[in-house]
Amino acid sequence: MTARTGTHLVLGGARSGKSAFAERCVAETGLAPLYIATAQALDDEMTERIATHRARRGPAWTTIEAPADLAGTLSAEAGERRILLVDCLTLWLTNRMIAEADMDAEIDALVAAVAALNGPAILVANEVGLGIVPDNAMARRFRDHAGRLNQAIAARADTVTFIAAGLPLTLKG
Amino acid sequence: MTARTGTHLVLGGARSGKSAFAERCVAETGLAPLYIATAQALDDEMTERIATHRARRGPAWTTIEAPADLAGTLSAEAGERRILLVDCLTLWLTNRMIAEADMDAEIDALVAAVAALNGPAILVANEVGLGIVPDNAMARRFRDHAGRLNQAIAARADTVTFIAAGLPLTLKG
Amino acid sequence: MTARTGTHLVLGGARSGKSAFAERCVAETGLAPLYIATAQALDDEMTERIATHRARRGPAWTTIEAPADLAGTLSAEAGERRILLVDCLTLWLTNRMIAEADMDAEIDALVAAVAALNGPAILVANEVGLGIVPDNAMARRFRDHAGRLNQAIAARADTVTFIAAGLPLTLKG
């Protein structure tokens, strides 16, 4: 296990190259990768995006889906001999808001599961708070939850990297 | 007065942890803090947000409100034995646009007041220009004013810090 | 030719000061500047923005317009004794989407032209992926194209600088 593992939060914008960066970090560890997908293929656009990501990773990766119980999946799957890649926290957050879950409780449970991980993990998340204040209240709540989640995970991560135009900038670690 | 004081601009997105970071910077100086609030409690959402921030700061802080005449407040209140925390420049900008003020004159007057400060101050501002171009012209004007204000303050600040996921990145100083 | 030339991508948000920074980089080289404008003055707002930028650069600059065939213009104009400033890639992308061009082919051709440049160039681009997911599908496609273009150019650039509040942050180089 190198300095780049432990828990590593990879933060970036849409199409910033954050997933590809996270996958390279996983490959560099030499550990067996377990991909934890939070995306739900609810429409053609998401189905295509999921297929593109899956093709890039190739057949060596094991994939499981955790669109809802991400905390439980992390607790069950983490271990010293493998590395988890969660892509991404922000889609999980979206899923839980759509399901009208208690977001404070959900976020607290996920943060606790990340803090208790007993093996390396790379967590991908979107930064969504750097545009104009959204018109609708639901989007503002989403932005608030996403910011709170990112802060809480970053505080517990060993390494935090911000990605812009495919290039990494170390925020922590 | 340490290297972190003088004038310090803390820039970040929504729920990036910029206010909490700024409050920690204030606490580290050991100076008596004066909190200059620019928020106006015009609806329940803002009232709640103001109450959350106030509870976090605790009773040791003196708070004054300057939703409109921020330049005059800065000039009147600055001094060597206290530290000002303005939270935030972007809400002040919003207030002045809603009031249909002459924004070029308003921004010039605020920038001049910041350049003339005779004591330490920490100024919090939002970065709002990193999303898609907004549909409506008012939001585009707001984005232009906010960018121009942030650039002008950053040029005059001793220290500029960008905050993402609660973590600081030094842009200047 | 200094370390700051070769190909230099300057990335930033709206009104971040990225154009002014790019112009200073050009001036520091001492080479004859050729400004390649991608903006189209389709409305009053754009006409005013173009005039502001032109006034700031002053009469020493040669300007040509390349709102559509940017790849061809780069290939024709690059050379060791001058420096190109393209402002900006993102407006060119907008123009090609409005023209309903084949965006994958357009982006590939532009990236190939940048990779083959035989003289120094500074390329300005917007980061647009750090806000909330846009409501409309066209804006999401735009965001995807812009992110893919920025990543591809950044991978081939010698230097990549991110600008916030007028201040540079080196991502590469």
TrEMBL record, chains A, B, C:
Pfam families, per database record: CobU
Family annotation (SUPFAM superfamilies): P-loop containing nucleoside triphosphate hydrolases (SSF52540)
UniProt-listed InterPro entries: CobU/CobP, P-loop_NTPase
Signal peptide: none
Keyword Transmembrane helix: no
Example of a GO biological process term: cobalamin biosynthetic process
Membership in a protein family: Belongs to the CobU/CobP family.
Name the record gives this protein: Bifunctional adenosylcobalamin biosynthesis protein
Recorded name of the encoding gene: cobU
